[in-house]
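Anyone? Bumping this.
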Amino acid sequence: MISNGLTNAAPPSFSCRTSLPQGQVESSTLVGRLQTKKRIITSTKDKFVYPQIPIFVKRTGMNIKVKDNSQGLRNIQGIILRQKTPSLSSARSLLQINEFDNLLRWAATAKKNGKYVFQERLKAFFPKSITRLKRDPILKQTHIQCEIFWALSIIKYKSEHLKAFLQLRTALELAYWKGDFAKCDSILKSIESSFGSSLWLVEVKMAILQADKGLEAQKHYLSEIKRSGVKIVSYLAWSFSFRNEDSVTPTRYIKSIQKSITEVKNSSQGHSILYKTLPSEISNEVELEGVLRYETNASIIDLYSTYTELGIDFVLHKSKNPADVIKYFSDSFNEISQLTNDQRLINLTNKKHEDNTTNSSWEELVQLYLTGKWQDCLEAIKNNSAFIDAPQTISIEADCRLFLNLQETLYESQSKPREDLILALIDIRTNGIAAIKSLDYLFKLRLNLRRFDFSFIIDKWIEDEMFPSTRNNATAKQTAKLFSSEFTFDIFKYSPNESWNPYFSLQVELYQLFEDGDHLGILEKTSKWEAINCNQTKKIATLYRQRSLLLLKQYRLGIREAVILLLESSSLLSYIPVKEYVKALDKELRKELASEISVSILLDIATKKLDKSYEKIRSFAYEDFLISEKYRKPSDLSENLSDYCKNSLVYYLRSICIADVMKVSRVFKSSFDLQNERLLVCRMLIQLDHEHKEMYETEVREITRAQTIFDGVRHVEKSKISIDIPGLERWAEANLKEDFNRLRSLLLIGNEAEKFNKNTDDKKLIEFVSSSVKKDEFFFPDNETRYSLIELYWSLLIEFLYNSECGLDCYLSMRIRHGVLSGQLRGALENYKIITKRSIDGNTYLSNKYWIRELSEKKFTNTDEIDSLLANFSQELDNLISHLVNDRIQILSSEKPEGWFRKIFTIHDLIVLQNIVRDKDVDFSTFFEASIHVFWRGVDLCLKEINKCLDVEIKRRASEIFENLNRSILSVCPNDPPLALSRAITEAKTSYFQSLNVVKEWFSLPSPYEPPIFTFDQLVRVGLECVKKIKPAFKPTITISGANVSITSMLTYFSDIFYIVFNNIEEYSDLEQPRVTVNCEVQGQSLAIKITNEISENAKSLSSIARVEEAKTLIQSGEYHKKISKEGRSGYSKIKNLIGEDNSLDFDFSEQFSFIVNFTTNFIKAPA
Amino acid sequence: MKLLIIEDDENKRSQINSFIESYHSDLEIFNAFSIQKGLDYVFDDEIDIAILDMTLPTYDVTPDEPGGGTNIFGGCDFLSQLDRFDIRIPVIVVTQFEIFGSGSKTMTLEGLRTLLEREYSDNCHGLIYYNASSENWMSELESKLNLILKPFKE
């Protein structure tokens, strides 16, 4: 166990062996001395002024600004060598930047006392091992121009090596696309042996290991790096490893990196880490300078990668970046590309390749593609090895297979990386932004393979789908060209002809019309959009048609069509200007379009997919539609269902007519009204959308059960302690489910699973996670699984406590702290008029007019003194309330050191959660539920302490305040005490203490914390009620006999079983009011239940006998597991599935006109 | 004239009621404990002025009704409904919160004031901070009420 050396809250098990001064700059005492000297010459007042007059000198074709205090190499050589420890940092700071090339040459041979002085530093360009990588300090801060030219000089100095490296890199990328991982491994070894260690190597190797050998292999590689790398190298390696894990989505990864960056104290280092771990945009010169400076101790490969990638980004995004920096990069790329043959830089700088493609086979392939000869196109790729190996043809192949509806490749030797990418692309092009998994895959590939040139193309594919309206912009085109000038395809450079496939010709024609501003032309051209069968072509038509409708302000038609399209396929979301429509939907337009059901649907989609803040106008649109159609509530629509488009109506009823939206309407007077309306809506949906019948039936059961539970526990809640569990569960699903899944994936690795069971560091890990001391910015855990579990629960706990809408603190604030406690305690005294308010200035308390008048009437002489005592008393009691509110009824933290609510997370809690997580069948919902229990257990401990404190400390303090008042009044008038006032004080004190007792009740666990108890009789009736909610005509006569046991925690289970039983009776008895008897007997730990129902004469038909026999066979064969979700089953499979293998289930017609179901089941008997 | 107090906190409601009764005995006071009940009064009883809490439940809380959840900005929902139906009533918001929400969604009293001025200026005639132990809110409420009532009294 090694401390990181940087934090007080040292993690108990830290990964980095070496603690080196990453980020510390090279010392340069001489520079300090020189600057001191300079200060004498140029300082104004006491502040050193660094002259910033740029002088332009000509150097290799570039204009370079040189600071006038910099010097030539000859002048500084002596100075540098006289330093105790000669420093390259000092030399760089002192030197003119046009001398950097010479400095590097000199540094290679510079000697002092017969020894090379800079050799060790220069060796850092080719670190022999991971230990050596980034071990040296970075160079001292200068300015952007200096950093760019310093990097350029080094690149030129080592250009021969870089040329060789680039050849290997190209070979590596080719081997990867061929799926030849053995060759990849061999090339990586060559790179390592020729150029040493680098983060580039770590990053690429990690991605290839994950693709080839999986998680365990890459984690093993990570552990090797962690053993010997310096802290920053280990941290970056860990982040690459984390990113490559299958269960980590890009969003999760980005969040994790951004969170750790907030801990980094040095902003330049933060930008550097962000740049190395994400494709983050470097938006200004300061950030650019920082990123480059943090490469001054990097390997030559890393320096080169960072420099060229940053430069390309700056050059591609010309409009956003400063012109001088772009020029530095552009000019330098001209130089570098000649020295290294870097194809990207050649493509970027070489203008002659811009407009013509010389490769004739490629041109033939493009023609096949444009004319829609998909099969021929695939053959052409298959028959040309250059095409098969070229990732550029992936997009074409994906399109061809999409149009041919081919899920499988034509070639036997298709490599896995290529095939995976093609399948992802087909999914994305079919399902658009709804293809979340494939988009995540692509985005992760973009991150994991960011060192490959091909990642630029992945960027473009992602952007094409996410932002299709910008797919033809200049940057996108240039990005595509950057990768290859030979195999670049830009459809907009071709003129469509009759032989073209409409998918392509429409793209070009609509684009041209749009560019010409001919929106009416676009509407005419796309007027038959509904008849377009090809999805891809329809997307293009949608893109332009929708934008034109918006620009022409044809909102009614636009929104109507948009909703039809979105309900048909959510993949079109990015092709429709939903946000722009919402922006246009102001109050007036909403009024105008109130009768359009599509407006509420569009707003609902916008609320769910774009911005939650639209929910208010979505709710208004929901009701505006009903009002404009002369309805009061959604269930009124049942009279005229056929008046509306079915798809729209189903969406409206299913997704918008929910309690949370319907509550906007004044028609509903209570939550119960809302639930009942939703039940009616579900009933309509069962008829209207029969395909999803089961989903609505489940909802009906859930609402019925919720109503049953509420009926059972109906009372005025005394506790004011609460959290919004459904709200928190939604938060956790969105924010932590991935972490949970990641933990479960890691537990599948033998080594990690083994570590998970080690609890020796629990106490320290919990302390570390819960410590308020700022974490080490480069912390990552050794025991990832155990640490993940702790972090997972800790994240939940923090949310349980602090979530702004659902957490405990929010409820404490709303229900107690803000006025409520004050009202409760002061209210007790205000009746007796012995407490007054503060004056307007807030400094003094107002005079107690009531008692002054009372006492004056009784001729008391010391009324002023008594008034002052009452004011003092008021202040003391208010201070006590204020102390409780501001200091005690708070969550304990460094700002609230006296807070009553502690963040409790014990080793015992961890073991409980560990056992839950280890269960192979556990899902996130179960883990969340267990976490809620752990949380309430901790809260309960606090509540007990709070009650004790209120009883002892607070009551004692209040008592003192009352006694002081009494004593003081007596001392003012010992011989003639104001008896009425004394009596009022005594009575007020009793009232105050009664109020405190009420306050004590606030601090108790909310009910029903314990699951409610139901009798068997009640459970049967809940099941029946669920059926009656859907089928109100069903009115069986029920007789329940036998043991009416009390059962806990099984409402869902039993109500589901009895729902199925009664639903079967309703469907198959052929009677509206059948007689049903239910008998229950306790048999040890089980219940034996027999249900007999009356049937009509016709019910026992040959077909129904056959159906029953089929159900029996299914259950006997064990096949029922697979059939439970199938439509048309009797439901007995579902019952069997619920009661499990260990219990029996029999059912059949009896000889009389009845049907009998017998089954046994386990049950949880409620405590007596 | 009819004045509606929409306030779910019993003590605060009682304080506001007492204050208005003692200074404006000519006003007929109605009390609602939730957003929906408040809207019912506005629609059904031709309310002239409203005093509105900011954090409110959807429905009046009773043993049969849990309230439909407490909305931190329930007062804004009420004001939005007035605006939606083009109802013009002078509303004074009286809150005992200094901060709304927590974390990144925190809104200060000043932030709320700005929001009310920006979004609901047609109806909202100001925001007052209520503190049970101070009488500042009384003088502020009095001055705002007087401003609103002035045209009716002239």
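Late reply, but here is one note on the structure posted above: Chain B has five helices and nine strands.
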